[in-house]
Amino acid sequence: MGKDREIFWGWFIVAGAFFVMAINYGARYCFGVFLKPLAEDLSWSRSVISLAATINIALYSIGAIFVGRMLDRIAPRWIITAGAALAAAGYILTGFIDTPFAFCITYGLLVGLGTTGMGVVACTSSVGKWFIKKRGLAIGITSTGISFGTIILTPLAGYVVNFFGWRTGLIALGLIIFFIGLIVSQTLLRKTNPEAHGLLPDGDKTAIPHQASPPQTAGKISTRIIFKDSRFWTLAICQGLAFMVTMSVFVHQVAYATDNGIGNIAAASSLAAISLTGFIGQFFYGWFSDRIRDPKYSFCLASSFMLVSMILLINARSVGGLYCFALLFGFGYGSLAPVVPIVAAHRFGRHVLGSIYGLLTFFIGAGGSIGPILGGFIYDHFGSYRYLWLINIFVLIFITLAILTLKKGKPLEQPND
Length: 417
Hints:
Blueprint: H1 9-28, H2 31-42, H3 46-71, H4 76-94, H5 100-116, H6 120-128, H7 135-164, H8 166-188, H9 223-227, H10 230-259, H11 264-289, H12 296-313, H13 319-333, H14 336-348, H15 353-382, H16 386-402
Helix pairs in contact: 1-6, 1-7, 1-8, 2-3, 2-10, 3-5, 3-6, 3-15, 4-5, 4-8, 6-7, 6-14, 6-15, 7-8, 7-11, 7-14, 10-11, 10-14, 10-15, 10-16, 11-12, 11-13, 11-14, 12-13, 12-14, 12-16
C-alpha cells in the first residue's frame, strides 16, 4: 500500500483518546451507584460522602491547568500513563477504606489527580491539534468515549455492587483503568502534533493559508493575556455552571431514584440511559459545530435540552419518568465535552488549545465541585433533592441566555518584547 493511502495518524489519536475517556469518565460517573450503599454500610451522611467527590473534582480542575501546559510541549502518553496509574491506585485503595478521612485521601486526592491526566484536557486538546477542517467531527467522536464508558461501566458497577458489594466494585474499576489506560496510552497516543512529525492537520498533503505553521511562541501564551479576555470568562462561567448541574445529577440521581422506590439496578441503569443519548449528542454537536457559523449555538441548543429535562426530573416518580429525563438530559449533556474545545479553538487558536483548555477546565471543575456537596447539604437539611433540582433549573436558564453573549474576536498571540 502506498504512502498516500496510509491512515492519517490523527485518527489513531482519536481512537486512543476515545478509550481513555471511556474508562476515565465511565468510572467517574459510577460514583452515584456507590453513594447509597456506602452511606448505609458505613453509617455516613450523604454530605460526608459528597465531600470526597467535591475534593476529587476540585483537584481534577487544579491539575488540569498543569496538564494543559504540559500538553503544549510533550506527548500525551506519559501524562495519561501516570494518570492511569494514580487513578487506579486510588480506586483500589478506596475499596479498603473505613473512615471519611481515608475516603477523602483515596477517592478525593488520588483519583482526583489521576483522572486529570486522563481527562478531557489531555484527550481533546491532543485531538484538536491534529485537525482543523474536521476538528468538530474528530472531537465529537472522541467525546463519545465518555458515554460509551458510562453505558458499559454503570450497569456493570450496579450489578457488582448489588451482588458482590461496593468494595469489590471499586477494586474492579481500578484494575480496568490501569490495564486499559497503560496499553492505550503507550500505543496510540505517542505523538504530540502533526507538524512535529512532518504532517499537516487533517492529513492534507498541501498547506492552505489557515494551516500555516504558527510562530514558536504561540503555544506559550501568557496567563495574564488569557485572563484579560472577556471571552474566556464567559466560557468559564457558563461551562462551570453547566458542570455543576451535571455533577449534581450524576452523583445524586441514583439515590434520588431509589428514595422514590425505584430499584437499585434500574436506578443505576438510568445513568447508562443518560450516556446512551449523550453518545448521540457528543457526535451530533461535534458534527453540527462544523456546519454552523458559530459553535456557541451548539451549546445554547444543548443547555435548552438540559433545562427541559430538569423540569421533568423534579416531577419524576416512576421508572418511565426517570428514563424520559435521562434521555433528554443525556442529549444536552453530550455537548459539554466536544463543544468547549471546539469553541476555545475557534476563539483563541489551535496552538494554544492545551493552555486555554487547561485554564478553562480549572474553572469548569470549580463549578463542578459545588454540585456534589450542594446536593448532599440540601438532602441532609431538607430530606429531599427538590431544592437542588430547582437551583439547577434557574442556573440552566441563565446559561442558555449568557452563552449567546460570547463574542468571536481574534485568536490570541503572545506579544513580542
